[in-house]
Amino acid sequence: MRSDTLDHAYMLWMAKTYNPNCDDGNIYLKMDGHKLYQYAISTVPLVVKDSIDKAGLYLEDIKKVLIHQANAKMDEAILKRIYKNTATKISRCISCP
Fold first, then answer.
1. 11: which residues sit within 8 A by CB, 6+ positions away?
2. Closest among 6, 91, 84 to 42, alpha carbons compared
3. CA 23 and chain centroid, separation
4. How confident is the model at residue 14 (pLDDT cuts 50, 70, 90)?
5. Which residues have C-beta within 8 Å of that of residue 32, sequence separation ≥ 6?
6. Alpha-carbon span 11 to 16, nearest angstrom
7. Is the pTM of this model over 0.90?
């Protein structure tokens, strides 16, 4: 089993709003977006590959990939890294809502 929580939990935290016009007393989820993006595009493809290997499959056996990350740019970057060493076309894996 894999958990990156102890090493990477600091990328998310709770804090007051940065909006100087809002003093509602609430706390909000904050994140280091750039570090989180870099972590996702470097880690998710490896986890996907490891899962496929453990299932005894080849990437070419996968008919559809559904990635749901923070945004489409991140999804596309992850898919490109997953498929970078295969002849499989990425376009069949990306679907727009």
1. 31, 32, 35, 36, 39
2. 84
3. 32
4. very high
5. 10, 11
6. 16
7. no
